[in-house]
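Late entry, evening session. Most of the bench is empty. Finally got around to the prediction I had been postponing all week. Sequence below, unchanged from the version circulated by S.P.
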Amino acid sequence: MVDETRRKILKTGAAAAAMAAVPPVLAQQTNQAAPAGKFYERGKVRIHYQEWGSGFPLLLISGGGLGGSTIGGLTNPFDAPGEFKGEYRCIGADLRTANNGQSSGPLEIDRPWDMFSDDQIGLMDHLRIDKFMVMGFCIGGPLIWNLLERAPNRVVAAVLAQPSGCRVENPTLTFDTNMQGWGPDYVKRHPDVTMAQVEQFLTKMYKNPADFVWSVSRDFVKQCKTPVLILPDDIPAHPYKVAMEAAMLAPNAEVSMFPWKEPKERIPLAVRQIRSFLRAHRTTTATA
């Protein structure tokens, strides 16, 4: 059953790889109906964010890659704000690189992962939140690892769902798809940025090194004490092997069943596990 399902998933590899670089249709559709939200500004950076519910803070990072990680994408593969706003103060934001988002800011060529962590930590500071939990999809995986390295005393627990990573047999896959998909659209929207600068940015992000989860080293994951729950996927952009390697290395990691998205009837079971994991690590030390 599992092998058959994995074969079906792998057959859709080309389409899935493209989704890592360009906004998914679902994200585009839901983004149109997304609330207007609010804005947080820091210098030249302007971050569009939205909040749902109340309780312990839970930062949500949608999938969709550099061009599609927006508030509207938080309904795929399940409605994250809808599922958790009853217990948590859910906070979502558009990445500043999202072509269909409302956030903006300079393309920091020499520090791609850190620029996103700056935005996320800055948003929490703006909201006067100290301790928080985080759940991310796709690109949210490496973003979370970087956030855990940057703010280990602030992130209480993390959920990495269908995390992206470097596929050994095709190490330039994410670089290539972003050069073809995200980069040209980004340059059209930002005439002050050239494709040469985009290439430098993506080289730093995905080729330096072209390995593991890109944003942090295996040595960091080995010593990371933050509890993490990993829900692996197995498409070209979300390699199962990398997700499981991270889970085996991290001392306080848990793993979901696999596959958890196919058949769709399994998704509620995965959400149930996420809910149990968050409750187990929720604290009362947040400042709101």
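Two things to note before I forget:
Strands lie at 38-42, 45-52, 56-61, 88-93, 132-137, 155-161, 228-231, 253-255.
The two ends are 46 Å apart (CA to CA).
Will write this up properly tomorrow.
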